[in-house]
């Protein structure tokens, strides 16, 4: 891709191009931040109106059954399943990623202890998204049973860090900062060979890259619906449990939605025999229902097509930045190898924060993460090749004019 | 209230009558189930549209700050605070009631242990809503530290059950089945005299009856926004912590929203110094925003006025049922004493289930709870005296004709 015309030509030939019309896009923005918050499906407003006016206002309490509210967490899980290599009855869309991680970490530690109580280590990466580490710290601190978090600084150190002390390895498939993607199948094998359980966080994977949870033999997974799945701001997260673990795991957030017969008003908790035991309390139905409008768009394509375009977009972006913005101290921190790349590209720059502010002021919305990282997410359902071109041109202009050095910019953005 | 005309006259003189227009009510229904799911504020559809079209679709990621999404859990907590005798900075609207109960039970047990590690008992009522008991069972089972749940069968047994072994007393202020209301201030004193902490569940109290958390010296509380507060199906719940406990409690669901600086990407969890440490993961913004449309209606009145009408409605209902439906084996199980009554009335009847089905078929929507309990909730913001009259007339008709004995009814409702 050497010219804007060539970008437009790629868009004309793009089999996913029609999907873009399914979203209500801000016309003043080139949005490269779907890795943080996905965009709004056009169907979302009408769906919210139907849930509020027809199901809630008119259907009232009867909608728990008639409108399928009770079944929604499982029904959406089944709809999401093909995107991550899962089967029906293996996913619930519920609560937040942090809460689901808490449930599954506790469940995994308990399952590990039931087999061998000497395993007291959770292995993770120091560069993981902080909430994952915070949750592990909360679990460890709260159990007071001598569990420990073993953090590695580099993915290459993982095989050596996973040993006979390890109960669970908690990894995020695609790193939020760098876009580095693990080999899920290979690492899960390493984890299992060491006798530990594999818990994968798919926050930056679901809807972004092909995932095959069952194919890779993973034990547990959590993920996010508000990024590449376009489920809405803070939309409920998901939890996946391999079928063979479902009836044996015990998770501590034993609320009534996880009971096998919630309306029996049984005073004793008896968990659902399947994935239902990952549920806890009553779910926020309006936000949950909107998740479906995001998932429905994926029904018109498949993750192989999404991946093909994702790699073409990120390849083009890397190539254009490196050629058209050469000599500006930008360092690619996302892997060049396709097998190690998610659907985002990150560059480090000493003035990363200021550059991103200047880009956003020009309508190119990526985001910034400490220290010095410019993140650009590429969502094949709505990102065009011409967006890639225009974003790089804006970046080139910001770098060439060093906009952030102007007194006006400094005053507006409190740059010191 | 002896005639329908008298009911209409009471409605004409009712200072809360204008509030009814703030809700989108189903015109075919007399809805006496706001104790289970509140009705939809008229403002809800427009608010959802604004959040989806303006804040999400157009404002995109910037809305976390510009539209106040990050601050919403606390801002709504401050708005809710006056309804339950709390101050600003004491409540967050977040997660589910079950999840918040887990956080606070764990926090309370830990605080108790830090003072006296011999206290290993959680006191509760067997007749509490099951999810509260399930969560306590989950906490106890998970901690494996020898905690125990001590259940009493009758509120009168509580003072004797609370002793030097007691760490926490977890009580629901208004019972979901009977509508019985505890004396929160007196019981909190009993709990404190025994050296234990008081954790109150306000699911059936917030927006239904006056509550004075600070006045009663309560330690911790949770509550629901989707019943009398009309926040929407499954709308996020709330957690309250007395100011003097906020900086000392430790809760295990230590997600990034509870960190004192979530965007520093600190690998170590350091909790917010105030109520913010009760937050965990990213919240479902559309559902959360709708809570405000319910709270806003309460700004036009106060809980004394709500309570005055609530007692008038429930008094009238009890009186009419007992006079006009006399001789039909209905037993009042809600206290007659105002000080012990929430905003619902429950009657037991051997054919409770069938009677409720017949009532619902006639557009009078209460609900049924095992064993044999007909529940009727009265929400003073939208329930009229004429609704009370008409509901009792429908009940009288169902009882007189014994509708549930007809073969058609049995066939339709699978009554055996």
The fraction of residues in strands of chain A falls at: 5-15%
What percent of the residues of chain A sit in helical stretches (DSSP H or I)? Answer: 25-40%
H and E order of chain A: HEEEHHHEHEHEHEHEEEHHHEEHEEEHH
Count of helix runs of chain A:
14
* Assembly state: homodimer
Stretches with pLDDT under 50, minimum 5 residues of chain A: none
User: What value does the Rg of chain A take, in angstroms?
Assistant: 22 Å
The total strand number of chain A stands at 15
Main β-sheet of chain A: number of strands, strand sense, barrel status? 7 strands, mixed
Specify which chain pair forms the largest interface. Answer: A-B, 90 and 90 residues
Q: State the end-to-end distance of chain A.
A: 38 Å
Task: Name the strands of the widest sheet of chain A in spatial order.
Answer: 4-10-9-8-7-5-6
Mean pLDDT of chain A: 96
Shape of chain A: globular
Q: Which secondary-structure class do the elements of chain A indicate?
A: alpha/beta
